[in-house]
Amino acid sequence: MVLLLLSALACNSGNGKETGDTADTGGDTADTDTADTSDTDTADTSDMDTADTSDTADTADTDTPEARGAALYAADCVACHGEDGTAGINGAANLVEDVPNLDDAAITDVVLNGKENMPAFAYTEAQMADLLAFLRETFPAPVE
Q1: Nearest to 139 by CA among 90, 89, 82, 91
Q2: Is the pLDDT of residue 136 over 70?
Q3: CA dihedral 65, 71, 77, 79 (to 10 degrees)
Q4: What are phi and psi for residue 78, nearest 5 degrees?
Q5: Higher confidence at residue 36 or residue 138?
Q6: Tell me: the pLDDT tens digits for 28-72?
C-alpha cells in the first residue's frame, strides 16, 4: 500500500510544481468584432468612498493546517489523485483506501522521496504537517 500511495502522490512531474496540461484548441479562434470606444467618456470615481469589508470576511477557515494542506493538495496532488482521492491517474494510489492504513512516517517518506511514477516534493516540515492534517481529515479511517 505504501508503494501505491507513493506512486500516486508522485503523479505530477519530477519536481512537483507543474500545474497541469493546457487544452489544445486546434488553432480555431472566434471571429469577433470590437467596438471603437476611443470617444467614450469615462466617469471619474476617484472621489467615491469604498466600503471596507475586511472585518466581515470569513478568514477563520483559511489559516488552519487542514486548509493549508488542502491548498498543497490542490496544487500538487489533485491532478493524479483527483479531488476525492480515487483518480488513479498515472498509477496514483487510491487515497481513500491507502491513507487510513498508513502512518504519518510512511506518507511523509513517499511525499518527500517519491516512488515509482510519483515525484518527490520538496515540502518543508510545516508544509508536510499541513498536508498530513488535510489527508487525515479528508481520508479518515472508516467507522466500524
Answers
A1: 82
A2: yes
A3: 160
A4: -65, -25
A5: 138
A6: 444 444 444 445 444 454 454 444 444 434 445 669 999 999 999
Task: Tell me the C-alpha distance between 37 and 119, whole Å.
Answer: 51
What average pLDDT does range 12-19 have in this prediction?
41
Count of residues in the chain: 144
C-alpha to C-alpha distance for 94 and 109, rounded to whole angstroms: 17
Residue for grid cell 491513507: 99
For 108, phi and psi rounded to 5 degrees? -60, -40
**Half-sphere exposure of residue 49: CA atoms within 13 angstroms, side-chain side:** 3
Q: What is the mean pLDDT of residues 92-121?
A: 95
Contacts of 4 (CB under 8 A, 6+ apart): 91, 93, 94, 98
Q: What is the DSSP letter of 24?
A: -
Cell of 20: 497541469
SS3 letters across 26-66? CCCCCCCCCCCCCCCCCCCCCCCCCCCCCCCCCCHHHCCHH
